[in-house]
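## Example pair
The file below holds two records. Each record gives the amino-acid sequence first, followed by its structure token line.
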Amino acid sequence: MDFGKVEKSLFVNLCMEKVDKVISLCLRRGIIFPNSEIYGTFSGFFDFGPIGSELKRNIENSWWEFFVKDEIVGIDGAIITSPKVWEASGHVKSFHDPLVECEKCKKSFRADHLVEGALKISVDGLSIEKINEIIENEKIVCPNCHGKLSFVKEFNLMFKTHVGAVEDSSSIAYLRPETAQLIFINFKRVLQTSRKKLPFGIAQIGKAFRNEISPRNFVFRAREFTQMEIEYFIHPEKLNECKYYNEIKDMVVPLCTQDMQEKNERDKFKNIKIEDAINEKIIGTKWHAYWIAKCLQYFYYIGIKKENLRVRQHLKDELSHYSTETWDIEYKYPWGWKELMGIANRTDFDLKQHIMHSGEDLSYFDEDKKERVIPYVIEPSFGVDRLIFTILLDGYEEVEIKGEKRIFLRLNKKISPIKVGVFPLMKKDNLPEKALEVYNLLKDKFKCIYDESGSIGKRYARCDEIGVPYCITIDYQTLNDDTVTIRDRDTTKQERVKIFDLERKIRELLES
């Protein structure tokens, strides 16, 4: 028996058990749950409950505050736009995933996921022909009924709809599959109104839709999701003139390079200083290096554990048609290293496509050289739903306290949905009335909850599992000296504080 394989299998099973527990927590505490539950759910679509919507809003706000400043401005584009946009961008022609169908039960699957699940390998970037070859050689069959699979074919991921009263070919439109194109088609208008000079960025947060063949892993791969994207426009001759380079050049980043992957070291990474990666031409340009560093810093800022993150370089045959260089920041999920976000050099592809199809001049006038240029673009692209799921997995912890297993969701204080819980020790002797006074004092300053149901231990536990960093308890001593206890979620230690000093103390704790 190969005990190494057995040990690895046990580890994977334990990790997937954690996924199930996080999903259970999401359902039980109203964080995220399937859409249309009372009708049996609607695959690939999810709703965010009271806790989840607060968490989502906090993440979006933290992203906006972290990135959208100085030379970066924001827009909010429409979900449905002219179908000519998607023809110009190439989505109508080439936005596909590999589809395979069972000839017996007629069930459809995404072919690359089927191969990865059956063989426990990654097939990112492989052609349809190669995937077909693997399915045939390895005799992969339908996981549902073990029937023979059809040849792999392309499946367009865009959702079609119709605009107007008549449903015919002239009224076809699409739900946007990405938010980026809205930035490109608004480039000229934003440039005129914001009066920005290169380099500058345009940011957007909004919904996108992809008709995934087989949504899986909860919200990791869904059909409706929220994106947070920046298109950062740079003079094509100044990709190595990064004004922030000195701030990040000594930062050490965990890289999985093309060379490592070609040597069958796909699951590994090595820590490399940014400056060394530039000098050794591992990362192509200083601006690309800056955005890799900046995005990693954001993930550290919102509390994702460093040891669970790495940066993987796309292989040449894996690159999108518009990209000369792409790096994914990946997270170590229970099912392996997978993309958390991507940072692509889109070159001038998108602006040129829209110039060609629209006839509009989307160039930039360079005052120094007195000439028009079409900027290059570095694109950091985040998915909010996937990021939330990642944060929940990263922060979920079970701890045994006095023989009882307790759940702690160790969310960073910046993004925790509820900042403060307020409890009376008992539901009598004027303690609830005093606790409500404290709650009313704080509720307009911080996101708070009031709870007087069950034992104090159970109330702490309920707060711990939704990530509340601080709980305030009003006890009998409060009635004598106007002091309360503040309990820290992560240490479970308590500190007595005067009520008049409570707001200052909590603000200080949240900012620490």
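Second record, same layout:
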Amino acid sequence: MIRFFFFLFLSVPVFSFAQNMDAELNSQQNKDWYNAAFRPYEDSVEYYADKMKAPQTPLERKATLDNYNHQLSVFRAALKDFVQQHASEDIAAKALIITCFRNVDVNSDSLLAIAGSLKDDGEHNRYADYFFQEMQARKNDATGKMFIPFSMTDEAGNIISSENFKGKYVLVLFWASWCIPCRAEIPQLSAAYHQLKNKNFDVLAVSMDTNKDNWLQAVRHDKTDWHNLFDGKAWNDDVARNYAVHVIPKNLLVDTSGKIIARNISALGLIKLLDK
């Protein structure tokens, strides 16, 4: 898998939600205030998370888990206090965004509950907009959800709409020319596609590239004849934003009714599910 790093300590998507969002979040000032506010709490949570991976007796494991949950609750309380204290400032939403991509397991429900304190300018700013969209996007790719339609151009410049594929099983594949794991899995996925394409199956391969020439070169090199799509917006295109695409390769399998039925399915998984 490929992830993107704005911070030395933070995995976060390279969206152009704001032109200089990445540079801004990567500033030493932002690193300093976030670490000063939350790093001690994170260290405690991570200490017990690591400890749980070590061999332990049942009693030791229970104690470790209790300590982990306690430290996690302390972290959540610290975040909640920070957001409440700065509820009318954009720094509160910025803290929530950063927390979304930390290693500490603060779930979406907890983050949304804390975000309920935002008000006035603290609720209406680009960081808050980004945060709330991220929270919604994380829900969108749950199995059983209806896939949100999108349109994008193919190699010939034709506009391809996902809605035109209703009645088929469709694999929506997120990849990029520079992504080594993406390219490594393409031969197996391509073989599965050719085995299944006459059985009501298709592939929409959405590129996270920004350089069209690099994308076209990769498509030609890999000899993929499914629907290769590109708009140059990469992580900021509508479908990537709607599905919180921060790590690639990623895929969503959509059934004939337009419902998501699998995430990150393998080529073998596709064949087992659809080759009937």
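Notes on the second record: The CA atoms of residues 145 and 228 lie 24 Å apart. The chain has a mean pLDDT of 89.
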